[in-house]
């Protein structure tokens, strides 16, 4: 008799808010060729020779400022998502595996195998496809499945940037924060231009056609920028917002390469210069709160906004274990499983 299992994958986090733990985490994260896609010798020189010598000392205090009693917020909230989904899925085990750090994807796979799973849903918790998140996580899972010699039937969850199960709870989480004098800023995790250009097999669309990410076509079917634009458009439609009531930007840049534009900091500066005093920020690329939302947006960006002359900045909590989102996730999971019944 077949048994379904669900592997929920997220990026990961240090085990502790210490320099050594952050260094261990960043080493694994940044040496992944799907994250920094330059030749291996240059990647090791950049990461080991420069980044790991300075960045852990800067980031560890930032983690410490948001650390929870149960550990890293990203780990805590991802586990809460899993726990609530497990209640809905009854006899189908749901396990969390982090692409970097703990609990590892390998340990999650071993647990699922030990529980008799014969059909496995690989579910990266990223609404928008990207090489550095979705692809890296799935490849890592397959690598360990091969090493384990385990061959369950595999179903890939895929991206879900416009599905109502995601859009409706996201829009409803934003709605209470909006007012007549607020401006909604969609801040997505940044991505190097080289990553999105690689997706364009035609080599004629990405960064060559004006507003390329806003045009749906075969060339950008897996484009992260297009997926983010489509999430934004879907939420804007649900909320009934006018063009001048919202903006879109990208955060969390690293290194000198060209990234998707505009940056969140530059967009906030532009909004202040337009006379906007109240901003509501939402980060739809993140399903669980972590450093990028709780510290980068809710602390650093707010401080910058006030210094620029703004008055009030509200960061919408990620969906985390919001019951409406768990309903949606359950529906998405069951939809994938039902579509793949032999």
**Lateral arrangement of strands in the main beta sheet:** 2-1-3-4
Order of helices and strands: EHHHEHEHEHEHHEHEHEH
CATH architecture of the largest domain: 3-Layer(aba) Sandwich
Overall morphology? globular
Low-confidence stretches: none
Straight-line distance between termini: 13 Å
- Count of spatially separate domains: 2
> Could you tell me the number of beta strands?
8
Describe this entry's structure for a reader.
The chain has helices at 19-30, 40-66, 73-89, 105-114, 131-148, 164-174, 193-199, 224-239, 264-273, 291-308, 323-339; strands spanning 4-13, 94-101, 119-124, 153-156, 182-189, 246-251, 278-282, 312-315. With 342 residues, the chain is α/β, with parallel strands linked by helices. The protein has two domains: 4-160 and 323-339, Rossmann fold, CATH 3.40.50.1400; 164-315, Rossmann fold. The strands form two sheets. It has a four-stranded parallel beta sheet with strand order 2-1-3-4, with helices on both faces. It has a four-stranded parallel beta sheet with strand order 6-5-7-8, with helices on both faces. The two termini are 13 Å apart. 45% of the residues are buried.
């Amino acid at each position: 008799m077949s048994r379904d299992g669900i592997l929920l994958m997220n990026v990961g986090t240090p085990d502790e808010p210490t320099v050594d733990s952050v260094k261990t985490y960043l080493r694994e994260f940044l040496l992944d060729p799907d994250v920094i896609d330059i030749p291996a010798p240059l990647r090791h020189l950049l990461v080991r020779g420069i980044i790991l010598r300075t960045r852990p000392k800067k980031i560890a205090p930032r983690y410490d400022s948001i650390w929870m009693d149960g550990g890293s917020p990203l780990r805590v909230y991802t586990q809460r998502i899993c726990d609530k989904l497990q209640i809905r899925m009854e006899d189908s085990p749901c396990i969390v595996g982090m692409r970097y750090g703990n609990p590892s994807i390998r340990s999650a796979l071993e647990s699922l195998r030990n529980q008799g799973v014969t059909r496995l849903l690989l579910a990266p918790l990223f609404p928008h496809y990207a090489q550095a998140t979705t692809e890296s996580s799935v490849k890592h899972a397959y690598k360990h499945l091969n090493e384990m010699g385990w061959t369950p039937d595999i179903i890939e969850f895929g991206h879900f940037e416009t599905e109502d199960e995601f859009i409706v709870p996201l829009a409803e989480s934003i709605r209470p924060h909006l007012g007549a004098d607020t401006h909604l800023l969609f801040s997505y995790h940044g991505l190097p231009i080289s990553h999105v250009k690689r997706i364009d097999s035609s080599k004629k669309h990405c960064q060559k056609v004006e507003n390329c990410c806003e045009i749906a076509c075969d060339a950008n079917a897996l484009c992260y920028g297009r997926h983010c634009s489509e999430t934004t458009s879907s939420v804007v439609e649900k909320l009934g917002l006018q063009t001048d009531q919202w903006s879109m930007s990208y955060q969390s840049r690293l290194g000198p390469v060209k990234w998707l534009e505009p940056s969140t900091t530059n967009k906030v500066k532009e909004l202040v210069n337009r006379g906007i005093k109240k901003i509501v920020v939402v980060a739809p690329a993140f399903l669980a709160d972590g450093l990028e939302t709780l510290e980068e947006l809710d602390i650093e960006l707010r401080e910058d906004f006030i210094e620029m002359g703004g008055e009030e900045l509200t960061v919408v909590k990620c969906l985390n274990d919001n019951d409406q989102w768990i309903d949606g996730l359950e529906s998405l999971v069951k939809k994938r499983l039902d579509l793949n019944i032999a």
